[in-house]
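can u do me a favor
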């Protein structure tokens, strides 16, 4: 950070507010790669001192960049340069495959894996009796060292034999295909909520920060429900792209 701000001077006589000038300095450093994604910024007081401005002015500059999605505040870490968001088209693909295609080094941390009676809220989409056995597992998907998604999935027992090593080495859809099962169609709902304490800790955001949500029920080529997923993503790390047609 010393090299990045060395020689930077703000114009105190300019009609452009100092906080905006400061934001422009930091944004230029992000855009030209001097501040690569994941870089941790110094504290507000240190940054303000380097540029000869007040702490409230620096805070306003950082907020402007947070609002633009260029910076994020990570719980327990501070302010960091935001990773490039994961671009997903409205297609039947897995997050693992999308990250791999984008060269983002997908990694998975398994949080839980158990066989349980079907949860009541999942029985209808999976077309199961509430007493039916299902395999339920929770994972944290990362791009490199950056948390991208908390993923809750339920698969009817007997559909897919899966172990902890399988779930950490690759994506669920790839495991289905390796077992000769083809995910063919899915219904999906996208929403949002504010991060709870546990969720915020896993995703490295602040409690109350916006989180994008997605629930999906996937069917194979015979029309059989094979998976129900409920995932949450830091809002700045994920976006959908779709094509709309006037019929």
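np, heres the sequence
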């Amino acid at each position: 950070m010393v090299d990045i701000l060395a020689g930077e001077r703000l114009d105190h006589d300019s009609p452009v507010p100092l906080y905006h000038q400061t934001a422009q300095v930091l944004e230029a450093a992000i855009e030209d790669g001097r501040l690569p994604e994941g870089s941790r910024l110094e504290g507000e007081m240190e940054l303000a001192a380097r540029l000869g401005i007040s702490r409230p002015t620096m805070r306003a500059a950082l907020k402007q960049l947070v609002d633009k999605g260029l910076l994020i505040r990570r719980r327990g870490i501070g302010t960091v340069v935001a990773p490039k968001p994961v671009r997903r088209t409205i297609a039947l693909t897995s997050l693992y495959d999308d990250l791999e295609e984008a060269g983002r080094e997908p990694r998975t941390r398994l949080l839980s894996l158990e066989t349980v009676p079907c949860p009541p809220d999942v029985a209808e989409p999976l077309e199961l009796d509430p007493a039916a056995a299902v395999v339920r597992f929770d994972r944290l998907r990362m791009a490199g060292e950056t948390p991208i998604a908390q993923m809750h999935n339920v698969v009817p027992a007997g559909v897919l034999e899966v172990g902890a090593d399988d779930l950490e080495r690759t994506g669920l859809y790839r495991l289905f295909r390796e077992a000769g099962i083809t995910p063919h169609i899915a219904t999906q709902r996208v929403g949002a909520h504010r991060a709870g304490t546990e969720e915020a800790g896993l995703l490295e955001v602040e409690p109350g920060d916006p989180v994008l949500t997605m629930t999906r029920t996937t069917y194979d080529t015979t029309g059989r429900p094979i998976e129900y997923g409920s995932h949450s993503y830091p809002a700045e790390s994920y976006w959908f792209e779709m094509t709309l047609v006037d019929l």
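The chain is about 30% helix and 35% strand. hope that helps!!
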